Amino acid sequence: MDSLTSELDKAMPPESEDLVKDVTLATFMTDVIEASRSGPVIVDFWAKWCGPCKQLGPLLEKLVRAQKGTIRLAKIDIDKDPEIAKQMRVQSIPAVFAFMNGQPVDGFMGALPESKLKAWIERLLKASQAAGINGDTVKIETALKQAGDFMAAGHIDAAQSIYAEVLEREPNNPDAYAGLLRCLMAAGETKQAHELFMKLPPEMRKNKVFDAMRSTVELAEQASKAAGSINDLQKTLEANPDDHQARFDLALAYYAADKREEAVDALLEIARRNRKWNDEAARKQLVKMFDSFGHADPLTISARKRLSSILFA
């Protein structure tokens, strides 16, 4: 991380530069978008009549100045410049956004206590350090690990920004592509993730890091054929509980409806009734679902245990 910090420090402004600025629509591009390409910029939307803003603003200024140039603060009075607030879809104030590499990567609304505000700023600086990479293998690995940590903590935008930065440096990095796809999936951008995945070179798509994406794509294609047929398939099973094909299709219909637990239960029931049916189709489909859900997902963990108890009973 020291090498990343030194690289980042070269791009930081000198201490004499004003790190806290009142920004308007005319200066937003320069003071926020362009400035964020050399270091994180915090944007604080406020107004004179806002009580919580009077508490949050001074705290932000204090913590930003304490960083001595590694981060900047842009203050926007929504009464003077409402257009920017509208573009950022600000619903209430205070509203705070963090920009890196020309994009918003994190944010919050309302006033935070100093301890939480300090932790939030420290997280931004770590993301900035990881994003300030070059083609060196060690730095790439550091950035990917940092992005993974953000992903695990639920900070999808920060992780996505780092993965995108890695891909600017190494356009064929499969780990960065896989991370970017996971970010899109986590953000509900399933279609966009699918399209990006299919645009990758065929040889790259075979890489093990894309196992989860391949499973998700295959499941989505299968589920689309069974979508909307839950009621009909349930009636079929009521008439014949041993109709394994109907139960298999029902699992896919559940998956298409985002009823993950019901989908898993249906496949486990097939395995319980006849584990060898259709060349162990239920077990193989469950493995696809586990890949799609992620191996650390609580449903994957519990379903694996249930499947093992069935297979080794």
What does this structure look like?
- This protein is of the alpha/beta class and 313 residues long.
- The chain folds into three domains: 1-111, Glutaredoxin (3-Layer(aba) Sandwich), CATH 3.40.30.10; 133-206, Tetratricopeptide repeat domain (Serine Threonine Protein Phosphatase 5, Tetratricopeptide repeat, Alpha Horseshoe); 222-311, Serine Threonine Protein Phosphatase 5, Tetratricopeptide repeat (Alpha Horseshoe), CATH 1.25.40.
- It has helices spanning 2-11, 28-34, 51-66, 82-87, 114-131, 137-152, 156-169, 174-186, 190-199, 202-205, 211-226, 230-239, 244-256, 260-273, 277-293, 298-311, and strands at 20-22, 41-46, 72-77, 95-100, 103-109.
- It has a five-stranded mixed sheet with strand order 1-3-2-4-5, sandwiched between helices.
- Strand 2, helix 3 (51-66) and strand 3 (72-77) form a beta-alpha-beta unit.
- The chain starts with a helix and ends with a helix.
